[in-house]
From TrEMBL:
One of its GO terms (molecular function) is oxidoreductase activity. Pfam families: F420H2_quin_red. InterPro entries: F420H2_quin_Rdtase, Split_barrel_FMN-bd. This is Deazaflavin-dependent oxidoreductase (Nitroreductase family). Gene3D superfamilies: Electron Transport, Fmn-binding Protein, Chain A (2.30.110.10).
Amino acid sequence: MKVLDTPRPPSGLRRLFFRLPIHLYRAHLGWLLGGRFMLLTHTGRVSGSARRVVIEAIDHDPRDGSYVGPSGYGRRSDWYRNILANPGVTVQVGRRVRAMTATPVPPAESAELMARYAVRYPRLAPRLTRFMGFQVDGSQDDYRAVGERISFVRFTPARLSSTDGRRT
């Protein structure tokens, strides 16, 4: 694995293009993106205001309802830093909206997630890794090495406590 320059978050027209999926969700058309993308609503660590971003749902466990998504700009992403400060989030996949708790995924598990992603999406995986600043040779070991460096986050459904109604 060769590390290229890590991309900077988009600005100008490119930023507008990247934020178009948010407008699909606001227009109640998020279902058009299927189960592959999710609208993440989180709280700004400085402003305390609601913030939104659409990220890829690279893994879903139907048994517990959890999703995993990557931070394309790594630990520098505002949304990633926001969920570290306040892990209580809302996730919308298609038409379903759920309160969730965000938890960073450990590097060893991230490595396996990235290796499975590369098998599932052999044409998309090299492009995704290049976008995130990595050049891979296509081997599972290379994808695992990338996975150890990417910031993945698991979103687990928040449970309501039966005694006081707060999320746990």
